[in-house]
Amino acid sequence: RGKMEEGKAYSPDGVFAHLEMLEARAHEAAVKQEETKQQEEKLARLKARVQELRLQRDELRAKVDLQQKGQLGKGGVVSDPAQPSARAVLEWKIKSVKAMLQVFYLTGISGKLTKRGVCFCISTAYEGTYLDSYYLDLLAKPEVQIHRHSVPVFIPLEQIAKKYLQTDIRRFLSVLSDHLNAYAGRRYQADQLQERFSDQIEGTLQRNSLCNLLVFNYNVSSKSKSFPFNVRLLYGDLCCSLPTEVIVSCTPDAPASLAETAAAHSDLFRRVALHEAFRSFGSAEEN
Questions:
Q1: What does the alpha-carbon distance between residue 210 and residue 235 come to, in Å, rounded to a whole number?
Q2: Residue 234: beta bridge partners?
Q3: Whether residue 107 is found in the same domain as residue 133
Q4: CB 94: neighbour CB atoms within 10 A?
Q5: Residue span of the structural domain in which 252 resides
Q6: Rounded to an integer, what distance in angstroms lies between the CA atom of residue 232 and that of residue 151?
Q7: pLDDT digits (tens, 9 = 90+) for 155-213
């Protein structure tokens, strides 16, 4: 038996199989070694790049600190600390504004430099649907102030400006954008409800200018001429397009069995857009 096994091991087929196995292992080892070498070279390049960027960062920080203090003169030469360079400070402000414009471009806020300051455009949208744009023309001298704008009068622009405009213009634009987008979203929902489900709404939907209070009677069935449900939606958070308070009640002549349905509707209105809620009512009716 031992001789048979020995003969099998050294048979031509056995030798070739063993060589193939060794070659495969050698190939795998070579591939791994090459991958390791490439990874080490890549890591070395990345470390060098990180070090380079850190040096650039430190240099820029130093320049910005000097510019903020008005101590950096033309050509990057430190001037007399007692005589701050107005030109250097202005250049730093312009660079900061340009950087800010690039950041805000991705959030629906764009802008361009003007001779006297900056003109911003705040675009609003709801669930991927573009709605309206509002413009804000700011003056930079002697201090930042609003020159002209197209923001609706019921948006608390003055309060937002008083709180943020002089100290944090990014925060000012962000908060204003939140107000405008929430208002546009609330108005869009009310419009969609009135346009697409008018046969389920009694008369005209009642709303104020800010669209943060909506009142209407409705029915989940488009075939019925009665409107047993009354809803009052209050949007206490002006930066939100969903209501903070929902009251759904049944009209006096409505069957008592609808009270449970009214409670379910109240929960739904808190969680989804108005027109989406009514769309779900139609789907439930079909099923």
A1: 10
A2: 213, 245
A3: yes
A4: 13
A5: 199-285
A6: 27
A7: 999 999 999 998 888 899 999 999 999 999 999 999 999 999 999 999 889 999 999 99
CA distance 104 to 121: 10
Which residues does residue 113 pair with via DSSP β-bridges, in sequence order? 118
CB atoms inside a 10 Å sphere around CB 271 = 11
CA 261 from centroid of its chain's CA atoms: 35
Whether residues 220 and 277 fall in one domain: yes
Alpha carbons 192 and 215: distance in angstroms, whole number:
15
Q: Is 201 helix (H, G, I), strand (E, B) or coil?
A: strand
Which single residue is written with the structure tokens 């744009």?
133
Total of domains in the chain: 2
Residue type, 183: Y
- 114 and 160 housed in the same domain: yes
CA dist 217 and 233 (Å) reads: 12
Q: What is the pTM of this model?
A: 0.63
If we measure between CA atoms, which residue out of 229, 169, 239, 173 comes closest to residue 202? Answer: 229
Query: How many Cβ atoms from other residues are within 10 Å of residue 158's Cβ?
Result: 10
Q: From 153, 184, 215, give the residue that closes a domain.
A: 184
Contact 131, 137 (CB under 8 A): no
Q: 120 with 109: CB under 8 angstroms?
A: yes
Q: How far is it, in rounded angstroms, from Cα 127 to Cα 37? A: 48
